[in-house]
């Protein structure tokens, strides 16, 4: 068991080393509660007071046949909160995407080719200047792309329902959604247009 910087790791299993002391293979089962301070120290990313990563499951280790380096295959459950800014910084992606995210689901695969599936909630999000006060729905990750399904979001005093994608490494995103009750002055300010008619509510389909 390891406890450091408000984080705790509890694991059981076995690791095998070569005569030179290099990791060759093994299997670990356990739970990790990782704090924002530990992430800051380990990866040098900005401190994120909202970050709390919980991982529970197994990690199997085997040598890659060509590189002879250990490869890590995971089967983990997660119930975590973090900021999009910290995630993109960790992935070395620059983007005008921000917000606080809570994710509950499962992560599988061999690093770095991981996949995941679960539910997510976004609070105080900004996508290229488009402000979302909140959102929730299903999230699927694979091939460096996040697919957001069955999304219900709230923006500019209205409601938005649809699907979206976020593709790495450049954080390119798409949104295809139906909106109801959107405040027209705030939305037109977002698209930088001053309409020649009074303020009102917007309904319809839009793409970003």
Question: Can you give a write-up of this model?
Answer:
The chain has helices at 36-43, 84-90, 184-190, and strands at residues 2-4, 7-17, 23-35, 52-63, 70-83, 97-110, 113-127, 130-142, 145-155, 158-167, 172-183, 201-207. The protein has three helices and twelve strands, in the order βββαββαββββββαβ. The protein starts with a strand and ends with a strand. The chain is elongated and about 80 Å long. With 208 residues, it is mainly beta. A twelve-stranded antiparallel beta sheet has the order 1-2-3-4-5-6-7-8-9-10-11-12.
By helix and strand content, what is the structural category?
mainly beta
Strand content: over 45%
Record the strand order, biggest sheet. Answer: 1-2-3-4-5-6-7-8-9-10-11-12
Helix content: 10-25%
User: The biggest beta sheet, please?
Assistant: 12 strands, antiparallel
Assembly status? single chain
Keywords:
208 residues; twelve-stranded antiparallel β-sheet
In short:
The chain is mainly β.
Give the SSE layout.
Elements: E1 2-4, E2 7-17, E3 23-35, H1 36-43, E4 52-63, E5 70-83, H2 84-90, E6 97-110, E7 113-127, E8 130-142, E9 145-155, E10 158-167, E11 172-183, H3 184-190, E12 201-207
Antiparallel strand pairs: 1-2, 2-3, 3-4, 4-5, 5-6, 6-7, 7-8, 8-9, 9-10, 10-11, 11-12
